[in-house]
Amino acid sequence: MSTVYQNPSIQQVFPLRWWALIVLSLAQFLVVLDASIVNIALPSLGTDLQMNTNMLSWVITAYVLPFGGLLLLGGRLADRYGHRRLFIIGVAGFSLASGVAGLAQSGTWLLAARALQGASAALLAPAALALVAKLFMDPRDRAKALGIWGAVAGIGSAAGVLLGGVLTSSFGWPAVFYVNVPIGLLVIAAIPFLVSKDIARERTSLDMPGAITVTAGIVTLVAALSQIEQGGWTSPVTLGLAGLSLVSLNAFIIIEKRVSHPLLPLAIFDNRFVLGGNLAMLLIGGATTGLFFALSVYMQQVLHYDAMKAGLTQLPLAGALVIIAGAIPAVVARMGMRNTLVISLLLLAGGLVWLAQTPSNATFAVHLLAPTLMIGIGLGGAFVVGTELAVHGVSDNEAGLASGLVNTSQQIGGAVGLAVLTTLSFIRTTDLLGGGALQAEALTGGYSWVFLGAAALSVIGAILVILIVRNHTNGEVID
């Protein structure tokens, strides 16, 4: 099934399409924001709900994991039942889960609400991006719209730390969840006036075995990586979960090759833009999730910034990201998507390596300002071009699939990246403490490994884009 827009105003009247983009982008902003906004709130949240450091990392993972694991299914459901319909259902579920999270009285309660948030986001995110792709059919308009969309994703990641600090300091940690509710209600009220109703086409069977196996594979993979911190690389639990993940993901691939209507038609990866864009977003997701988690905790645990100050220090990064994201479409027109993405990833990596040199007694102006500005520049380009690349050349009847796939790549990258990088941080911190280092120095050393690991992911992403993607600019492919 594919959403069909019969109202000519949606396709022909310029202002209405752009108003629709604003509303859809607002919903996407909430989805990305919620992966990072809780970072600043973690210390106070952990104190109130009696959650240790390991459980605090699961406040992030409990959201990212169902989000990434269910996105492919969400994209297919949107293609089958209607993009607008699934978008509204997703926003409603997300708003409800946010209110429940703000009311949490225990760690278990909060983690359950976060999981519901992630599952709802898996419905709304691919439906929203598919709506954007169908609202903007002209290549130049679509490039501008997807540029704005990618910029919103990047801004959401950066702004989460800023808004989390302001809200936590002013109103307490529940406010980082409550803020989603009125915005979600506004989106639900506005979208019926901007996007016409879905018209169903022939419905195909849903690939539930594929949905079950890919979700199980992703969940057990992240659980195995998270277990390393407690049991080590060779513990029975770690190895058992890793083995179960491998079996589940192999089963998923076998199923997708055999079913008549697969959840993920593997032929979509014949499109080298889609393949390269998704690999880039996978690694960008891992790098940025680890970055914002480690940076926010480092500022509060090591530098002893309060929530407000830690949040405000992200203003330069967010500002640089916004400015660069606005300029990226013009850069792509001149340099091409591949070259722009590669340069952006290398700038991101350079800023992360620079940030890894920050000492335990750092000051913001001397040690943090310049590398975070460089990171913002790199992120602005990477988010915009990575998203545009991942949906380039996709047919209308696979818009939901491609949209779900790029979001899946980013969220799986975030979940796996956070698990790996926080494990490396724990190992490094433990080694330094065992060697007699002071706690502040040991924590700083651990977080520096997170930044270096995130930089390595960015460099790998740049290399893969160079190897896979041909350059593309103004409708031409440049070999």
User: What fold name goes in the CATH topology slot of the largest domain?
Assistant: Growth Hormone, Chain: A
Overall outline = globular
Could you spell the SSE succession in H and E letters? HHHHHHHHHHHHHHHHHHEE
Strand order of the largest sheet: 1-2
Question: What does the model show?
Answer:
With 479 residues, the chain is mainly alpha-helical. The chain has 2 domains: 8-206 and 263-478, MFS general substrate transporter like domains (Growth Hormone, Chain: A), CATH 1.20.1250; 208-262. Helix content is 80%, strand content 1%. The protein contains 18 helices and 2 strands. It has helices spanning 8-12, 14-33, 38-49, 53-81, 83-102, 107-135, 139-171, 175-178, 180-194, 208-231, 236-258, 272-301, 307-312, 315-335, 337-355, 364-390, 399-434, 439-468, and strands at 471-473, 476-478. Strands 1-2 form a two-stranded antiparallel sheet. The chain is globular and about 65 Å long. The relative contact order is 0.14. Mean pLDDT is 81; it is low at 1-14.
Secondary structure layout:
Layout: H1 8-12, H2 14-33, H3 38-49, H4 53-81, H5 83-102, H6 107-135, H7 139-171, H8 175-178, H9 180-194, H10 208-231, H11 236-258, H12 272-301, H13 307-312, H14 315-335, H15 337-355, H16 364-390, H17 399-434, H18 439-468, E1 471-473, E2 476-478
Antiparallel strand pairs: 1-2
Helix pairs in contact: 2-6, 2-7, 2-9, 3-4, 3-7, 3-12, 4-5, 4-6, 4-10, 4-17, 5-6, 5-9, 6-7, 6-17, 7-14, 7-16, 10-11, 10-17, 12-16, 12-17, 12-18, 14-15, 14-16, 15-16, 15-18, 17-18
